[in-house]
Write a structure and sequence with these properties.
Elements lengths: L1 H14 L4 H41 L3 H9 L2 H10 L5 E4 L3 E4 L2 E2 L4 E2 L17 E7 L1 H4 L9 H11 L4 E5 L7 H14 L6 E6 L1 H10 L8 H9 L1 H5 L10 H13 L11 H29 L2 E6 L12 H13 L3 H14 L5 E3 L20 H16 L32
Parallel strand pairs: 5-6, 5-7, 7-8, 8-9
Antiparallel strand pairs: 1-2, 3-4
Amino acid sequence: MIGSRETGRNSELSQLPSTTNYRSLVRAFILRLCVAVTLAVIFVVGIELLTYWRGVENQHSMGPEVEAAVVQGTAEEREYWREQQPAQKVQYEPYVLWRRAPFNGSAISINADGIRRTLHTHCDAATFTVWLFGDSVMWGWGSPDSETIASLIAAHYESAGRQVCIVNYGEKGWANTQELIELVQQLKHADRKPDVVLFYDGGTEAFTAYENKRVDVHSNYLDFRNYLEGWITERKSGFSYLSRTNTYRLLENIAARVSPKQDSSDSVSESDAQTWSRAIMQNYQENMDIIGLLAKQYGFRPIFVWYPNMAVGHKQLTPDEAQLNLRLKKRFPGMDLVYRAAYEKCRAVSRPDLYYLGDLLDDTKTPLYRGIAHLNAAGNQIAADRLFQILETPPNPVIAKKPLLVLKANSVHLPESKANQTEP
């Protein structure tokens, strides 16, 4: 009897569907998987949004010296800082790589060719024409259109009763070789050729060498190179796009903080600075020679100026400027060695068309610097005064195609009156 009962029970079990338990297990697994995937997606999206927000916040963050400028500045200067971030957009430009995108604001105005507005200027076929080239210092970072060096030089001519056409070809991060290429492009295509071409350089020449560990390259050279060399790889199937996510960048930053690189190549020695500085000055003078040939062909006077710089001058820094200097040294260790070495090489060069202004601000004790070389309105005024003086006293009168103004003692702050240079 017992045997027959067991046999019957086994036959009943054998008649049950064999997949019942498996189906329930699969359903439970799929449910848990969907929940896990959903939570993972929410987590990743949350991290992406958080890191994006932090990135945008950092982009809009301002240093103490800028915050002070916003609070203490004029209404036009405050408007500049409201427009500064949207006006940062650049677009690709053949040969020179980047140019500002058009922007139409009240404090920042950039035309369709990427050229910033210069006030007090009038351009036609007969007007005395000056082209200005340089990096963000000439472009006018930190200054509304009316307070850029270009506008202040033009205001000098206007006060002297003479019309002038000043075109500000300055662009952020541009090195002198980019300026040379832009000059060639403009000479080829501009209807009105210049009477004078002035290059306002120095900082970017030194910084690009420091940044890339090589001379005669543009800003962010390594980033451009890595992007272009990886371009073909990114066009193939794969997951390389993940490296461009905000989450990936956050993880990279965390990894760098937890385990910082001990790479000796990141350090800068005095020997490196001296080696690069010699190459910087050799490259710069070769560019000067090429521009000199263009000057003879097109009939303009070339002028080359190295602008004031916090790292190389002997200005008595204000407390805010000293704090800014410390932050820059911490962020870019060894950069000041390269700046000083390059500027010393420039100072030692004796050429009639090269002007060294690294010590222009040495006797000024009031606040001037908003960056390692960016100046406030008073600083730009001092620089514009000196550049106007240079423009009006050509070393070789034969080069000038038109008679220049006779300098009046009260038309510009002369070096002998440096005590007055603190005033705009």
